[in-house]
Amino acid sequence: MINVTQTFLPPLEEYMTVFKRAYDARWITNRGSLVLELESKLQSFLGVNQMIITNNGTTPLQIALRLLANQGEVITTPFSYVATSSAIVWDRSTPVFVDIDPEYLTIDETKIVEAITERTTAILATHVFGNPCNVEAIDRIAKRHNLKVIYDGAHCFGVKYKGSSLFNYGDVSTCSFHATKLFHTGEGGAMFTESHELFHKLYYSHNFGHDGPENFHGLGINGKISELQAAMGLALLPYLEQIMAERKRVYDHYEAELDLRDIQSIKIREGTLWNYSYFPILMPSENTLLKAQRELNQERIFPRRYFYPSLNKIPYINGPDMPVSENIASRILCLPMYPELQKPDQERICGIINKNIC
Ligand SMILES: *Cc1c(COP(=O)(O)O)cnc(C)c1O
What we know:
Layout: E1 2-3, H1 12-25, H2 33-46, E2 52-54, H3 59-68, E3 73-76, H4 82-90, E4 94-97, E5 120-126, H5 135-145, E6 148-152, E7 160-161, E8 164-165, E9 172-176, E10 189-192, H6 196-205, E11 210-211, E12 215-216, H7 227-236, H8 240-257, E13 264-265, E14 272-273, E15 279-282, H9 286-298, E16 301-302, H10 323-331, E17 332-335, H11 343-357
Parallel strand pairs: 1-16, 3-4, 3-5, 5-6, 6-9
Antiparallel strand pairs: 2-10, 7-8, 7-14, 9-10, 11-12, 13-15, 15-17
Bound molecules: pyridoxal-5'-phosphate.
């Protein structure tokens, strides 16, 4: 079976060696030495000054919204994983969708200003598939209208934009370390900010608000990750360069084998050092997509419709029409993409796709 992704695992002995440190210390959570070491090593690898590792990639969105959105209107993208929208609704803020750019697939910054009202407090945009939003334009709009900017960077591990980690943009940026993502701790995630004041708030918010054992800085929840999960992250670190290189190899082979006259692939924003996190293709129509998907499934190949449906169509949201996002969502398919994917399998996949677009 070939899935859209296959979790990269380090050799078991290597995981066990790290894991044993937590075991021997009898310290398996509450920011033990493995979490601290992982944070420090990831900071150097990613090129960020501050980060907090969390239990997943959704909690940091919820924490950032709670601190910054004030239960107002949050301008957001309809083309993302459901967590982006559900975090807003969960916080009892109001999602206000702005359609996406048809080539970059990120929020269309030229349509943001017209969506701003006196209730707008924040923008929550996704660097979808690790492709940066127009961060400069969004920053200008946010400053002019006194809005906070949160980036859902779940797909952005290792992405650089104009020489800096993509996580350095926005007031707060998040990442997911879920097993399906490029770098993972099974379940896990992170939040980033350049501001010391905001870092302090994010930090205590993910730890019940604690200020020592008996005092509290403020409201908090439990967003901590365990040592058992951090051990996975540490055991994966030596393989990061290899993971990235293999992904590029898979990507290049798809580009060579696919008939790209009738298939649109994603346009990465200029100035980006990308991470090859996904291989999305836009089929000519939903019908061709469904037909190709059926044939691939018969061969036990399971691409995924990332992201479908367009989030404005989710029943508990039921937002206004977003023509570009709905059109893209109906035609986009993410092909299997992981380091161990073999060339002959990629060629089978491309054969089926190519056959279905002519
Ligand atoms: C995976 C993902 C999340 C959620 O991350 P978890 O670690 O699964 O909680 C949020 N946003 C986007 C865009 C994602 O792809």
